[in-house]
Amino acid sequence: MPVFKLVVAFNYLLLIVPTYSLNTVEIVPNIISRQNWHARQPVERELLEVTPTPYVVIHHGGEPKYCYDEKTCSAIVRQYQNFHIDDRHWFDIGYSFVIGEDGNVYEGRGWDYVGAHAPGYNTQSIGICIIGDFSNFVPNEKALKTLNDLIKYGVKLRKIRGDYHILGHRQARSTLCPGTAFYKYVQTLPRWTNHPIPNYSNGTTTTLAL
To answer: Disulphide bridges in this chain (predicted)?
Structure first.
């Protein structure tokens, strides 16, 4: 084959063969907006004191209610919000985000607002709850992958610090949350810490950073 034809053939292959770089692939979780899960309006909002936040606090719903599709998960998230507003008298759903075993993220208070999920950490953390009771088993692979992707996405957006630490809800108060089985999993995560530093609004502890 003449040299000219070889060059043309090579250039043609370059055009039709896709190239990928692991460094440029960005995993963006599918976030269902408050509007799309039909959230109520918050009573009030307060901006986080520390951004990017140094902590991610992991929760489970604590009830044996599970969901594998957007419609069912949305209904459960609405139940969480109603309970938190009507029974707990909080401003809104307590969590920053909720994850279903459908693999979706449901926007709670979001990246920028103080949550009501972990005393001592509400002003300096993102609170993430996975729907269900995980006392005896861990969430499914979809939910765990989404949890990982959401945290990475928060770091990418500079909403979560690059040197963030993870803790389970039971490290902030006396509770079984996020469930015995799930908490054992949380403890295996690279950024889990056994020495978190709380910040209470009454001034008993003022340290906000790690």
So the answer is: 67-73
